[in-house]
Specification:
Number of helices: 8
InterPro entries: 4pyrrol_Mease, 4pyrrol_Methylase_sf, 4pyrrole_Mease_sub1, 4pyrrole_Mease_sub2, Cbl_synth_CobM/CibF, Siro_Cobalamin_biosynth, Uropor_MeTrfase_CS
GO molecular function, one term: precorrin-4 C11-methyltransferase activity
Protein name: Precorrin-4 C(11)-methyltransferase
Bound molecules: S-adenosyl-L-homocysteine
Enzyme class: transferase
Helix content: 10-25%
Structural class: alpha/beta
Radius of gyration: 22 Å
Strand content: 15-25%
Distance between the termini: 57 Å
Number of domains: 2
Number of strands: 10
EC number: 2.1.1.133
Largest sheet: 5 strands, parallel
Shape: globular
Length: 275
């Protein structure tokens, strides 16, 4: 009787700090017979949870075909094979390209989500991505590099919504980000925050600037890779003198889990929504 093939687990390693891997992801690493990790973006320390004798391979110098062949081979020998990816595997992670050969070979696979660098960058900078009455929408995007943007997704068009933008893979194209935001009518003093290596101990850098000066500030800090660009009308809100309150925690606003402790009118808010 032949043994069942192993399962390939696409595990989100989170943004860098090994403590930001999910408990589920860590448990899988502890049981893994083989781990293929994206060494260009995932710190090797993320494989510290692997058991002794686990096969560990950095995919940095491999092609997609090479990675698929490695995973298929590992599955023939191990019940648990982990592909460890930076952040969340579903964002700019070539997930489909890797799962299709597995499907074709009849190998089962699953995905374990991870903390995306978009969230880690906001956390590092102490910023919120949504703010009542300012922006309630987050766009995760990039500018065109060697990968073109599909029709309708040019940054200029997305920026016209004036929502929060988390811009991946674009730090070397900051001039293009500036051009697009200007074309969409963002003012020169619009705040922009760039976070380099969010959550990496000793390496994280947070650069705060404006549309006008963010490129120069990043050049001064020599940031040329692994950076998240956050552009949002909510940036810096913790320093604003006036702020619309989130209705969820307002004393005048009751909901499913809490009765209002004062009338909505006295709390100075409009009714009609729940959060
Ligand atoms: N799946 C990943 C994104 C991979 S694409 C995620 O969910 O985060 C690689 C891009 O992600 C980089 O160019 C950079 O824009 C961003 N990135 C990844 N790790 C980062 C980190 N620790 N700090 C800031 N940006 C990061």
């Amino acid at each position: 009787m032949t043994a069942l093939p192993g399962t390939v687990w696409f595990v989100g390693a989170g943004p860098g700090d090994p403590d930001l891997i999910t408990v589920k992801g860590r448990r899988l690493l502890e049981r893994a017979g083989a781990i293929l990790f994206a060494g260009s973006l995932v710190d090797r320390s993320a494989t510290q949870f692997a058991p002794a004798h686990c096969e560990i391979r950095d995919s940095r110098d491999m092609t997609l075909e090479g990675m698929s062949a490695w995973l298929l081979d590992a599955c023939a020998r191990h019940p648990v094979v982990v592909r460890l990816q930076t952040g969340d595997p579903g964002l700019y992670g070539a997930l489909v390209e890797m799962t299709r050969p597995l499907d074709a070979a009849g190998i089962p696979w699953r995905v374990v989500p991870g903390v995306s660098s978009a969230m880690a960058a906001a956390a590092a900078a102490g910023e919120t991505l949504t703010l009542p009455e300012v922006t309630q929408t987050v766009i995760l995007t990039r500018v065109a590099g060697r990968t073109p943007m599909p029709p309708g997704e040019a940054l200029e068009a997305l920026a016209a919504h004036r929502t929060t933008l988390c811009i991946f893979l674009s730090i070397t194209l900051l001039h293009e980000v500036q051009r697009a935001l200007r074309a969409a009518g963002w003012p020169e003093d619009a705040p922009i925050v760039v976070v380099h290596k969010a959550s990496w101990a000793g390496a994280e850098k947070i650069v705060r600037g404006t549309l006008a000066d963010i490129k120069r500030r990043c050049q001064d800090e020599k940031i040329a890779s692994q950076a998240m660009i956050l552009a949002s009308p909510a940036l810096g809100a913790r320093l604003w003198p006036d702020l619309a309150r989130s209705k969820l925690y307002d004393p005048g606003f009751g909901h499913r889990f809490r009765k209002a402790s004062m009338p909505a009118a006295a709390a100075g808010i409009a009714t009609g929504e729940t959060a």
